[in-house]
Hints:
The chain is mainly α. Helices cover 67% and strands 0% of the residues. Residues 7-40 form the Putative zinc-finger domain.
Amino acid sequence: MKLMHSCEEASRLLSRALDETLGLLDRSLLQMHLSLCGHCSEVDRQFKAMRSLGAEVFGDVGEQPAGGDV
């Protein structure tokens, strides 16, 4: 089993987390990667900011996927 995601894999998981709930293993590995990678952490921060801005502009359009809080 691979314990660390590359930035490319982390990027795919960050994007996927916007649309669906990530499994426990993917969430854990992504969180570990984000704790070690400033670049990917910044991408995650920007995704969260865009999601928040969208909610302000358009209101709550449904349940947020649990993986979105990574």
